[in-house]
C-alpha cells in the first residue's frame, strides 16, 4: 500500500478539554476517548460529549471500546457524536460486520496487539468489515496503553491490506525513526505525551505534531 503524503495524527486517552483544544490547535487529526472501565484514562460519555462539542471542524472523535456490548457501543457513539469506533479487544469479524450495519454512521478500526507471534492470517478475516487497523504492542494480560513499542520489522510480514495507524510507545524521541522505517497511514500517541494517565503535556503534544509534520516535509523534499 502506497504511503499517503500526509500522515494522520491521533492522540488517544483524552479526558480534559484544555488538552483536546491544545491538540486541535496544534493540528491533530483525531482524538481518542476510551470507554473501557479498566483503563486509567476511561471517560464517561457525557464528559466526552462536552469535550467533543467544543472541537473545531475536521478534528474527528474516536471512541475506544474493549469487548463491549455493541448496543452500548452504538448508544455511546450516537450520544457523543463519534466519527470512528476503535475496537481494542478480541472482537470477531462477525461482531465487526454486525456493528458496521448497526452503526453505519461510524467507520471501524480494529486494533491488533503485535508481537513475535503475529501473522498476516490474523488480519485477513477483518479486511471486508473494517476500514483500517491500529497496530499496538502486545503485552500479556493488557489491552493497550503499555507505553512500550514493538519490533516494527514484524509489520513487513503482516502485510496489512488496509490503512493502518502505528501505536505503541510513540513519543517525541522515536516518532521520526518510526515514520522513516514503517511509513504508516497514521500514528497514535497516548502515554508518551502525558504527565500522568489522562493528563496530557501540552508541550509534548505540540512537539510531537511538529515532529510528524517536519518528517513529512523532509521526505517530500527528498522525493522532488
What does this entry look like structurally?
The protein is an alpha/beta fold and 224 residues long. The protein has one domain: Aldolase class I (TIM Barrel). It is built from 7 helices and 10 strands. The chain has helices spanning 17-26, 45-52, 70-80, 93-102, 154-158, 175-182, 202-223; strands spanning 8-11, 30-34, 60-65, 84-87, 107-114, 132-137, 164-166, 186-189, 194-196, 199-200. An 8-stranded parallel beta barrel has the order 1-2-3-4-5-6-7-8. Helix 3 packs across helix 4 and helix 6 (175-182) runs parallel beside helix 7. 37% of the residues are buried.
Structure in a nutshell:
The chain is α/β, with parallel strands linked by helices and 224 residues long.
Query: Which residues sit in consecutive blocks of at least 5 with pLDDT less than 50?
Result: none
CATH topology: TIM Barrel
Major sheet details: 8 strands, parallel, barrel
**Average of per-residue pLDDT values:** 93
How many domains would you count in the coordinates? Answer: 1
Silhouette: globular
- The number of distinct helices, counting runs of at least 4 residues, comes to 7
CATH superfamily: Aldolase class I
Amino acid at each position: 500500500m502506497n504511503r499517503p503524503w500526509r500522515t494522520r495524527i491521533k492522540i488517544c486517552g483524552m479526558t480534559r478539554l484544555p488538552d483536546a483544544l491544545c491538540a486541535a490547535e496544534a493540528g491533530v487529526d483525531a482524538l481518542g476517548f476510551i470507554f473501557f472501565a479498566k483503563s486509567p484514562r476511561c471517560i464517561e460519555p457525557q464528559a466526552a460529549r462536552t469535550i467533543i462539542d467544543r472541537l473545531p471542524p475536521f478534528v474527528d472523535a474516536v471512541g475506544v471500546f474493549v469487548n463491549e456490548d455493541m448496543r452500548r457501543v452504538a448508544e455511546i457513539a450516537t450520544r457523543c457524536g463519534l466519527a470512528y469506533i476503535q475496537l481494542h479487544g478480541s472482537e470477531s469479524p462477525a461482531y465487526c460486520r454486525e456493528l458496521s450495519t448497526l452503526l453505519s454512521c461510524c467507520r471501524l478500526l480494529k486494533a491488533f496487539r503485535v508481537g513475535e507471534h503475529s501473522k498476516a492470517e490474523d488480519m485477513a478475516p477483518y479486511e471486508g468489515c473494517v476500514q483500517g487497523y491500529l497496530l499496538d504492542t502486545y503485552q500479556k494480560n493488557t489491552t493497550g496503553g503499555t507505553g512500550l513499542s514493538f519490533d516494527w520489522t514484524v509489520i513487513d510480514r503482516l502485510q496489512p491490506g488496509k490503512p493502518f495507524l502505528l501505536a505503541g510507545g510513540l513519543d517525541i524521541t522515536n516518532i521520526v525513526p518510526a515514520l522513516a522505517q514503517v511509513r504508516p497511514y497514521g500514528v497514535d500517541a497516548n502515554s508518551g505525551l502525558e504527565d500522568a494517565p489522562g493528563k496530557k503535556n501540552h508541550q509534548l503534544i505540540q512537539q510531537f505534531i511538529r515532529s510528524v509534520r517536519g518528517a513529512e516535509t523532509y521526505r517530500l523534499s527528498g522525493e522532488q
